[in-house]
Amino acid sequence: MLIKKIIAPLFLVFSLSGCSFLYDTFVYQIDVTQGNYIDDEKVDQVKIGMTQEQVIFILGSPMLIDQFDSSKWYYIRYIKPGAEEIQQHQVLLVFDNKVLVSMEREDEIENNPLLKSGRKKAPKPSTESSKGDTGEEARSPAPIIED
Question: In DSSP terms, which residues pair with 138 in a beta bridge?
Fold first, then answer.
């Protein structure tokens, strides 16, 4: 009887606590990306004194324009790669008479974790060659035009 009193609660506790471990380990979790695709390279191109149209050309449309002050634009990037940690970055642009007067960002924008660095890159056009082993250019025969 004592064994039933001990085993039943232990079984219940272990079975319920094991669900979270199994979920994190075996269940596939999709990558979630929301907001603008912003990176340091693009944000560094934006300079004080640019017009709204120039900013839109570089960064795209803002994720959020402040409802009460339309001169504040928010560019937000939210990435949750599967079971990894969430990355969220925000850039705030403030305009006055459609000219950028202030730019705030939290910190350096981390690399996108969804882009795999181990992928094989495409060859550069300058290194591609249509030459054969002999060093001569491979030419296709000229088309025959009949009248």
Answer: none
